[in-house]
Amino acid sequence: MGKSPVNVSLNISTHGKPFHFLLAALLAQIVVSPFVAGEVAGVAQDLIFLCLMGAALRVVRQSRLFPLILCLSVLCAVSVVGKYVLDGVGPSILSDALGAPVILLTAVEVTRYLARQKRVDLDTVLGGLCVYLFLGALWFVFYSLLNRLMPGSFAFTVHGDHLSPEGTDRLLFFFSYITLLTTGYGDIVPLSPTAQTLAVLEGITGQFYLVFFMARLVGLHVAGKK
User: Fold this and answer.
1) How far apart, in whole angstroms, are the C-alpha atoms of residue 35 and residue 134?
2) Bridge partners of 189?
3) Residue 200 near residue 139, CB atoms below 8 Å
4) Whole-model pTM?
5) pLDDT tens-digit series, residues 113-166
6) Nearest-angstrom CA–CA distance, 219 and 217
7) Cα-Cα-Cα-Cα dihedral sign, residues 157, 160, 164, 170
8) How many helices (H) and strands (E) does the chain have?
């Protein structure tokens, strides 16, 4: 007989505190991005992304969705390698299209795990932070995919009009997180209706998640005192 959904979720982080590795990969992606340029930037980001998928697989290895996430991750890894073997934007588009559901499904599984917790501990906080950072990573993939399929969806204003693909991805990565944080410096502007809609949805999702997560933490804290 298979495990119940509750047991599956509760087993997400019982071995080795995998949220530590997942959070480290997410933070590395943020920290490394501004300090590398040119082709090295693309290689570094791809390596970190592969590490991120590995950490995500470690988190959800007890989930019923693990076979699907594993399959998508392998295909995504193959397409990432394909970018350095094949010409054109096809492999990049494919890696984005496969990477998005990996990030989304992992975030959903971690959110389910958090929703079932009965007390606040470090694991709960780290898991919640991972989901929040996953939102920024997910929308970056959306923006990158959109910009490849519909060039001109974003204006990079002071950054210039002749950016390399690596430079464009770095700026879209930055744009995703400042949109998630609702900072908005105005140096990167979504122009197409699709880009504008995605930016609005990211801002709404980020704010809603913060409200949900903080309310959940407070509720667990109060319940733990009773």
Assistant:
1) 21
2) 155
3) no
4) 0.85
5) 888 877 777 888 888 899 999 999 999 999 999 999 999 999 998 988 788 888
6) 5
7) negative
8) 8, 2
Cβ(45)–Cβ(32) below 8 Å: yes
Q: Which amino acid is located at 161 in the chain?
A: D
pLDDT in tens, 165-219: 888 988 999 999 999 998 888 899 999 999 999 999 999 999 998 888 878 777 7
Block residue for tokens 């295909």: 75
Name residue 194's amino acid: T
Give the up-direction half-sphere exposure of residue 101: CA atoms within 13 A in the CB hemisphere. 15
For 211, the enclosing helix (H) or strand (E) is: helix 193-225
Compute how many other C-beta atoms are within 10 angstroms of the C-beta atom of residue 190: 19
Tokens of 203: 């801002």
CA atoms within 13 A on the CB side of 158: 4
Q: For residue 14, how far is the Cα from the chain centroid?
A: 22
Residue 54 CA to residue 88 CA, distance in Å, equals 26
Reading the block at residue 44, the tokens are 């570094």
Beta carbons within 8 Å of 52's beta carbon, 6+ residues apart: 22, 25, 26, 29, 137
- Could you give the dihedral angle defined by the CA atoms of residues 131, 55, 39 and 77, in that order, rounded to the nearest 10 degrees? -110
What percentage of the chain carries pLDDT values higher than 70? 88
Report, in this order, helix, strand and coil percent for the chain, each rounded to 5: 75, 0, 25
